[in-house]
Amino acid sequence: MILKVKDGNYFYKKAKKGNPQKYLYNDAINFELHPGEILSVLGPNGAGKTTLLKCMMGLLKWEQGSTLLDGKPLTSLSTKEIWTKIGYVPQASRMTFSYTVLELVTMGRAIYIQTFAQPSEKDRMLALEALDSVGIKHLANELCTAVSGGELQLALIARTLVAEPEILVLDEPESHLDMKKQQVILQTIKRLVKEKGLACIINTHYANHAFYLGDKVLMVAKDQPVLTGKVSEIMTEENVFKYFQIEVKRLRHETDGQVFETMVPTYFGSNPDQ
Ligand SMILES: Nc1ncnc2c1ncn2[C@@H]1O[C@H](COP(=O)(O)OP(=O)(O)OP(=O)(O)O)[C@@H](O)[C@H]1O
């Protein structure tokens, strides 16, 4: 499935009358995502990353431009058609409903379950498999209100995977996670994208994660052009300075045939033992 955003732009209607409407993005959003590709969206707080995902999936209506799935405008598809193709993991929020983790994940199968029917044994097994793939099968019978924010985030990712989407959309999935769980999430995303040929778009605040996930980056910031392209081309010291007002060093390290690229803010350039 090919996901394409063509000339997309949006503005929130301000409550105050007489305010001129200003588009959120300095210029229109354009990108194309193929099976097996990952696009990381980077930008400072408030740059419009979540809004971009919402417009792209039709949760908000583009003021200009459109989203196309395999060449068909999203607006011509039914809600069911859209949500069998797209799996969305929104930013983490605390649950107030007392479902177990397994029940929450099984709900991800809802699009395949007839109205008023109960989930089948197959649905339950798929939910357990998805929990296993994100490393929290042991929490299946815990209440969502009783697990940590990071564990809940993993459960929400499992819930999306269980619906077998072709396009995976994740809004800051690593926020609230400890370093090990961040690794689990990133490795899981990368593995699923490559094994199942998913297309994936992910909002992140971590430059290093964009390097790890690879493929493409879209960078947005207020009053700056929208940048899209290969990670290696977009993730430059100059661009990060322009878009985040922070000086960084891009470092490359090679060991045992593996290449590591990362960005370190120069303000970290001190020796902690001195
Ligand atoms: N419902 C809304 N009504 C009016 N303005 C909004 C609304 N939601 C977001 N905005 C504004 O639109 C801009 C973009 O918000 P958005 O949440 O897309 O940014 P973001 O890049 O995802 O931020 P963050 O990194 O902090 O999650 C912000 O200035 C925000 O205040």
UniProtKB/TrEMBL annotation:
Record-linked CDD domains: ABC_Iron-Siderophores_B12_Hemin
Q: Does the UniProt entry include the keyword Nucleotide-binding?
A: yes
Q: Which GO terms describe its molecular function?
A: ATP binding; ATP hydrolysis activity
PANTHER family reported in the protein's UniProt record: IRON COMPOUNDS ABC TRANSPORTER, ATP-BINDING PROTEIN, METAL TRANSPORT SYSTEM ATP-BINDING PROTEIN TM_0124-RELATED
**What Pfam families does this protein map onto?**
ABC_tran (PF00005)
Q: Which UniProt keywords apply?
A: ATP-binding, Nucleotide-binding, Transport
Name the source organism: Psychrobacillus insolitus
InterPro entries assigned to the protein according to its UniProt record, in alphabetical order: AAA+_ATPase, ABC_transporter-like_ATP-bd, ABC_transporter-like_CS, Metal_Ion_Import_ABC, P-loop_NTPase
User: Which sequence ranges are marked TM in the entry?
Assistant: none
Q: Which SMART domains match?
A: AAA
Specify the protein name.
Iron complex transport system ATP-binding protein
Boundaries of every ABC transporter domain copy: 5-247
Record keywords: Transmembrane helix included?
A: no
